[in-house]
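Page 47, continued from p. 46.
Same chain as before, 49 aa.
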Amino acid sequence: MPSLIRFLFTLAVLGGIAYGAMWALVSYVEPTPREMTVRIPANKINPDF
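Result:
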């Protein structure tokens, strides 16, 4: 039984660290918006050609 509790505690600690890392990324990293251009071939727009 003590090994099960130790295992669950270790999983909880690792989960907390992962959650904290995700929270830090969301809080401190700001994406930079920029324009994006995508070329669409003419045969995709008008397949009659």
